[in-house]
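Subject: sequence -> structure tokens, single chain

Hey, anyone have a minute? Need the predicted structure for the following. Not urgent.
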Amino acid sequence: MAIGILRHGVPKLLYSEESVLWATSNLYYGFDAQYGMWHPPVYLYSLAATAGLFGTGNVAMRATSLAWFLLSLVVAWKITGLLLGKGTPPLVRALPIGLMVMTPLLMEGGLLLDIDNTSLCFAILLLIWLYLKDPATLAPRRLGLLTLVFAFALASKLTTPYMLLASIGAYQVLRQQPIRGFVQAVVIGVGGTAVFAAAYLAYCTVLRYPAGFMFQFSYVGKSSSFLHNPGLNNSLHSIYWNLTWISVPIALLVASAIALRTVAFVRARRAQPIDLLLIFCVAGLLAYVPWYAAIGKYTVPPVAAGVLAAGIELGSRLMALQRPVLRTRDVLVAGGTVAVAILLLLVGTPLQFRPPGFYLASTGLGVITAPHVYLALKLVAFPLVLFGAWRLLRGRPRSEVWLVAAIAYLLIANPIDIAKLAGMGPGSSPYRAYAEPGFDATVAFLNASVSGHPGEAILAPKDIGFYFNGHYYGMEDVADVGDISTRPNVRYVVDSTLYPAKPGLDGVMRELSLREVKRIGAFVVYENPGYNGA
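Reply:
Had a minute. Here:
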């Protein structure tokens, strides 16, 4: 779609321009081209700008997401200054930023090609920052600015921003200002929606883009997912997935911050600005995890808000700590236990299950290889770190011991996760998680094959097809794999073994007598014996 924008000014590709082959005609709701604006187009245009300047290579495409992530960190820094105070030591203000970088879901999102983890996360944090600068405001100029920023957030996605709007209303109710919250929510919500709708309709009219496509694809086509409970198994699947990618230490820290802020609210009977971040975090996670059973990048904005709030709460408590008197023997004992904890954390591979992706939710519970060993090692490692903190802080309040242990554990465990994830990155697809090596080599193998056979086609996941120089059938759009894979113009069938677009593909290939000819990293290539050699 980035290429489509460069050609036509809008995210669409004519069927005649595409290398993709369609198993059925008029797949995209009968429209005359393949349109790609499933959600509003801010992120797509940023991707197109990168493609126009630097091409569509792996580094360039990931750099677009990284740029949005860095912008989000800048806004997060502004929020820390607002809530902790500009006189706060820089290291304390940097703590929430460090926690965001150490959260695998957010760090992975900083390199993944999608909306929620890029332009949407930035827009959400920007709106929170501007709102918290004067949360009591009813001034027309301030509300006008917030309305425009809300419209900008809607220009990335039409779902999550409304969750933030509801969170603002709940925040004002907890501040004992329900009428103020209602007025703010109505003005910002109605005004922002009107601004976005007017801009969107003008865009579609001037550039002749079908205004109804986005709603038909993303809302009518997915209404069943929003309007019914996904079932206990799918909800538990989503909880497990999100908990593991947020990481157990970070999740516990966010949960602790929610508990501490709840106690503070019960005592004061009035919410504080930091509570808006946690309200949005809870609202977003409840909506996307147990209710929608989301697996993927949907939870990035609420998780970013929750991690930021937890870091701010942790930073404020760090400033109250006094430096302990350290004994040599205690330092040696604590150092030894921490060294053992580090050894345990180094043994396990982080996030030992299928990486996140666009179609992962449809593949059922079978996609997970439970990381029991890894989680068990983490559970053993934390008590060791806790014991080391107790040795160093004997005689100090238990709250200080637990705080120091939590900080030490985070600073040890999560960088190990991030370092291992980064080590798995080279050669992966811009749209896949780090743990799927071999993407570039698989594409190179396929392109070498097609060089002498211009009529050759493959059946493969879309991202492989994007980088393939010939024609391809998108695996995600094919209902009958057997029919497509045995067509005379199809030479190879390709899929991932870690994140299969079609689970159980190996059994289907054996039934159809397609033999495995190549296994490259996480990818497997099957050859069709009925290929006509065109």
